[in-house]
Write a structure and sequence with these properties.
One of its GO terms (molecular function) is ABC-type transporter activity. It is found in: Cell membrane. Keywords: Cell membrane, Membrane, Transmembrane, Transmembrane helix. Helices cover 60% and strands 10% of the residues. A 4-stranded mixed sheet has the order 2-1-3-4. Helix 1 packs across helix 9 and helix 2 runs antiparallel to helix 7. The chain folds into 2 domains: 2-40 and 171-224, no CATH class; 48-151, abc type-2 transporter like domain (abc type-2 transporter like fold, 3-Layer(aba) Sandwich). It has 225 residues and is α/β, with parallel strands linked by helices. The two termini are 21 Å apart. The radius of gyration is 29 Å and the shape is elongated.
Length: 225
């Protein structure tokens, strides 16, 4: 039984790979997509430029500015000297986003009051700007959490987060498995369409429809796809 099944699978594979055009359609797109998509199809923002206009000379604004500069997503930090420089910075694409600290930012934080800051994004690159804004929000949230922990009573418990899969959080390792699944699904659809078109061109489709195909025959064709 298995010998006959393997013979049918081999016959279907030989029939599929016999034509050069079919081989090119099946192999070349897969190789190109697997090699290029991990570098292009990513939701990670790196090497971005951030501009900061600081009206506050307090320690909290300075500390957040330093944390923004140390973030992996930002490699360049522009320090603006006046509010009139904000719009040209965005219009000329000198920075992906601008952070503006108001004059009472540090004072409000020291008094444990609400301390808003302004964040201006470049809407022409909305996806990257929104991702970068999420990074900034996370940095501000972590800093706020540290301030609250300093005010509260000391706690001996400590939460340790450990990533077992992809410990370095390299986004390419998240993209590649999903690409393999999507490319495989698309490849199966392409092979099925090519098989039906070839059977119809050769005039054997009607013969297959009226023939008493056994389970081994159907399984062999599915293994080919």
């Amino acid at each position: 039984m298995f010998h006959r099944l393997w013979t049918l699978i081999r016959k279907e594979l030989q029939s599929l790979l016999r034509e050069p055009q079919t081989r090119a359609i099946l192999i070349m797109p897969v190789l190109i997509q697997v090699l290029l998509f991990p570098f292009a199809a990513t939701l990670e923002v790196t090497n971005a430029t951030i501009a900061i206009y600081n009206e506050d000379s307090g320690r909290h604004a300075v500390e957040l500015t330093q944390r923004f500069a140390r973030a992996k997503a930002f490699t360049h930090v522009l320090l603006l000297q006046s509010p009139q420089a904000i719009q040209p910075t965005i219009d000329e694409q000198k920075a992906l986003l601008v952070v503006r600290f108001p004059a009472d930012f540090s004072r409000n934080l020291d008094n444990y009051q609400t301390a808003p800051l302004q964040l201006l994004l470049d809407g022409r690159n909305s996806n990257s700007a929104q991702i970068a804004a999420n990074y900034l929000q996370q940095i501000v949230k972590n800093y706020q959490q540290e301030l609250l922990e300093g005010k509260a009573k000391p706690n001996n418990s400590k939460l340790v987060v450990r990533n077992w899969y992809n410990p370095n959080l390299d986004y390419k390792w998240f993209v590649v498995p999903s690409l393999i699944a999507m490319i495989t699904t698309i490849g199966v659809m392409i092979v099925t369409s090519l098989s039906v078109a070839r059977e119809r061109e050769q005039g054997t489709l009607d013969q297959l429809l009226v023939s008493l195909a056994t389970g081994k025959f159907s399984l062999a064709r599915r293994c080919r796809r």
